[in-house]
């Protein structure tokens, strides 16, 4: 069924993205774009002395890449055609490291479908980015402003 409006979704419905492997280039490029050159991400010797024993990806990099993965399911699958705007993000938690060569995927579960007015609603989703061992690494809630069925 084509997902066009808020009413085309059900609370509890889940979508899981394709996976993507974190690369050293991802980390270096993110550090360059943001200016976040913290040695836990960019210095092999420093990172080897941390509890992680090696460099890890920036939490925000993992969040950015993981949140975009859900769109690889295809246009208008995880969000309806009537998508208006990203409405917000809550309860972001970085609960595990992502290392170079880890493969991440995102699962999005619909928590609530809220009517905002006659024309618009809010789709509330819990999102979990996990690694190749199905260990959660980032958990967060998103809200999307979407159209309602006329």
From TrEMBL:
It comes from the Bacteria. Residues 11-119 form the MaoC-like domain. InterPro entries: HotDog_dom_sf (IPR029069), MaoC-like_dom (IPR002539), MCH/BMMD (IPR052342). It holds the Pfam family MaoC_dehydratas. SUPFAM superfamilies: Thioesterase/thiol ester dehydrase-isomerase. PANTHER family: BETA-METHYLMALYL-COA DEHYDRATASE, MONOAMINE OXIDASE-RELATED. This is MaoC domain protein dehydratase. It comes from Desulfatibacillum aliphaticivorans.
């Amino acid at each position: 069924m084509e997902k066009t409006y808020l009413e085309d979704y059900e609370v509890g419905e889940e979508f899981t993205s394709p996976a993507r492997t974190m690369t050293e280039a991802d980390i270096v490029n993110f550090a360059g774009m943001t200016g976040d050159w913290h040695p836990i991400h960019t210095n092999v010797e420093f990172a080897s002395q941390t509890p992680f024993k090696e460099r890890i990806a920036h939490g925000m990099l993992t969040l950015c890449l993981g949140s975009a993965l859900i769109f690889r399911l295809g246009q208008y699958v995880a969000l309806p055609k009537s998508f208006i705007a990203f409405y917000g993000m809550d309860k972001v938690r970085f609960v595990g490291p992502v290392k170079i060569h880890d493969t991440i995927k995102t699962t999005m579960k619909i928590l609530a479908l809220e009517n905002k007015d006659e024309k618009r609603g809010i789709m509330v989703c819990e999102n979990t980015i996990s690694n190749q061992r199905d260990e959660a690494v980032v958990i967060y809630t998103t809200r999307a402003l979407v159209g309602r069925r006329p």
